Hints:
The protein is an alpha/beta fold. The chain is 27% helix and 29% strand. The chain has a single domain, classed as D-Amino Acid Oxidase, Chain A, domain 2. It has helices spanning 11-24, 63-82, 105-112, 143-157, 256-269, 317-337, and strands spanning 4-7, 31-35, 90-99, 119-120, 132-141, 160-163, 179-182, 199-210, 217-221, 225-231, 238-244, 246-247, 280-291, 296-302, 305-311. The longest helix has 21 residues, at 317-337. It is globular, with a radius of gyration of 20 Å. The two termini are 25 Å apart. D-dopa binds at residues 288, 315.
Amino acid sequence: xxxxxxxxxxxxxxxxxxxxxxxxxxxxxxxxxxxxxxxxxxxxxxxxxxxxxxxxxxxxxxxxxxxxxxxxxxxxxxxxxxxxxxxxxxxxxxxxxxxxxxxxxxxxxxxxxxxxxxxxxxxxxxxxxxxxxxxxxxxxxxxxxxxxxxxxxxxxxxxxxxxxxxxxxxxxxxxxxxxxxxxxxxxxxxxxxxxxxxxxxxxxxxxxxxxxxxxxxxxxxxxxxxxxxxxxxxxxxxxxxxxxxxxxxxxxxxxxxxxxxxxxxxxxxxxxxxxxxxxxxxxxxxxxxxxxxxxxxxxxxxxxxxxxxxxxxxxxxxxxxxxxxxxxxxxxxxxxxxxxx
Length: 341
Ligand SMILES: Cc1cc2nc3c(=O)[nH]c(=O)nc-3n(C[C@H](O)[C@H](O)[C@H](O)COP(=O)(O)OP(=O)(O)OC[C@H]3O[C@@H](n4cnc5c(N)ncnc54)[C@H](O)[C@@H]3O)c2cc1C
């Protein structure tokens, strides 16, 4: 029985499935998650395993995105607990974020309201060229491991996972399906029945090293790039060094010059990285599923069925995706109450 089909086995599809079970009262046995790629896979067309991934100041400061960030940050402990605690690959660690220009009152005041340990760094402690910096406790994901544990948890409740590639969104409606959630990320650019030309990739490259001595996050924001250092919890001491934010770049290959640039920038930002010999584990490339105007979270009638879109999380699917999915599921609940959209 697949009353509801969630297309997409990335973090947004998993958050959506979780919200459906917890917020709409649909029983897990009635949900199928369908995707070309599922947790455990690696592909340039599957963004979620490649994320850093932490909670940072990457999101824009419109009210809605700020509310998704807040929802995610303040509710992640609930998922962490249900998945068995921090060893599921989700833990809190300290972070410092810095800017060449003040990021604006709206963002800072919002974060101040709910982030643990939030404090503005005193001016006399700022690095050269930095105008403003904050310290906070962030959520750190060991992304591939967390995805696999999240899938196992949802399966234990009764959710079915099916590997399948769609060429048209209508193929997601199995014989008894009444509602489809479209969580296909970058796939929404080319999937017939959706083909959203506002979707584009924001390419990133990261260098993953072994660094048990670094247990803090550090990010320096600039106009078109970010230099970031992100420890992965329960990963055998992996530290993610990044990165790039290259708009409209579909290149899935890693480039040596970019890796060298990442290592230069991150070790200048946190020289302590070099207290141990640099041990590179892997270099990875990922394409963030960005969208002009921000994520699309919208319900529409598809023939006599319901189609709810939830894609376009760009560089913040882990940190805002739970809030996005909460909204997508609220559209489902509303449509069930008032069947005519
Ligand atoms: C280098 C890098 C660093 C990042 N760091 C962070 C971070 O620190 N914090 C953060 O919050 N975010 C970060 N992100 C962003 C984050 O990874 C994305 O926002 C998130 O993974 C998007 O998830 P998604 O589920 O929308 O898409 P995806 O993970 O791409 O999942 C899409 C799913 O849809 C399926 N699909 C697509 N098309 C079809 C089709 N036609 N038929 C069947 N299935 C289909 C795919 O197989 C897949 O299962 C980073 C991204 C990159 C690349």
